[in-house]
Design a protein that fits this description.
It holds the Pfam family AAA_18. This protein has seven helices and seven strands. The chain is α/β, with parallel strands linked by helices and about 170 residues long. The strands form two sheets. It has a five-stranded parallel β-sheet, sandwiched between helices. Strands 3-4 form a two-stranded antiparallel sheet. The structure holds adenosine-5'-diphosphate and magnesium ion (MG).
Length: about 170
């Protein structure tokens, strides 16, 4: 099974993917680590201090893989059986990102991105996944998010409504 997990930084992708990969015994790929290690980028953006992912190279890397979990901001570039989009109330983003040495500006950028559903919208528009799960993690423990994902994988429709602009 091919599973991709996307969402704004701080939504819990890495945490949830780790638990899920153990439960399902699937190899796990963190996309930002993978992009560096396998040089799946176009260039280094010094202004943003980040590699610019090459979608073609990323797809090529996963081309022959039939069983995996890939998690990261651009996970929706990778064709999968199931795409999981994690959401969180933007008010929670600062505490979710507290352990990182992000600047205040970068934290605020991510808060805004989540508020306006930047990643979720792009993921839904561009995804070639057979199914999409959309999950609000705000009031759930990582284990509970994983349990909901397992229900989704089992066939239950999981597409939660969120509106952070209300
Ligand atoms: N459902 C959750 N509830 C509360 N805290 C969470 C939840 N999921 C993740 N966290 C915490 O939020 C922080 C960011 O999680 P992480 O998995 O690194 O997010 P991402 O990979 O999407 O950037 C971590 O400190 C993690 O322990
Ligand atoms: Mg992460």
């Amino acid at each position: 099974m091919k599973i991709t997990i996307t969402g704004t930084p701080g939504t819990g992708k890495t945490t949830v993917a780790n638990i899920l990969s153990k439960k399902l015994n699937l190899p796990l790929f963190n996309i930002s680590e993978l992009v560096k290690k396998e040089k799946l980028y176009i260039e280094f953006d010094s202004e943003r201090n980040a590699f610019v992912v090459d979608p073609e190279k990323l797809r090529e890397f996963f081309h022959n893989k039939k069983h995996f979990i890939a998690e990261g901001l651009v996970a929706h570039y990778i064709p999968s059986d199931i795409l999981i989009i994690l959401r969180v109330n933007p008010k929670k983003i600062p505490e979710r990102l507290a352990e990182r040495n992000y600047t205040e500006e970068k934290v605020r950028e991510n808060e805004e991105a989540e508020k306006f559903a930047v990643i979720a919208t792009e993921a839904i528009e561009k995804s070639k996944a057979k199914r999409i799960l959309h999950i609000d993690t705000t009031k759930r423990k990582p284990e509970d998010v994983v349990n909901l994902i397992l229900e989704g994988i089992g066939g239950k429709e999981v597409f939660e409504e969120v509106d952070w602009l209300e």
